[in-house]
Give the backbone structure.
Amino acid sequence: MTLSQQLLEILACPQCKGVVVTDEQHRQIICKACRLAYPIRDDIPVMLIDEAVRL
């Protein structure tokens, strides 16, 4: 799984609109400010607050 650099630059946390980072080992995108992890399914980030998991 590799998300394009262009996609990573435009992604933001849907809750706080902050910066997110990828955790490729666990296939998720993390917002450190909100302490939420958003899943990546079939190489597509699922940026829905209802799908996020608390860290």
Observations:
- The chain is about 10% helix and 30% strand.
- Residues 5-10 form the longest helix (6 residues).
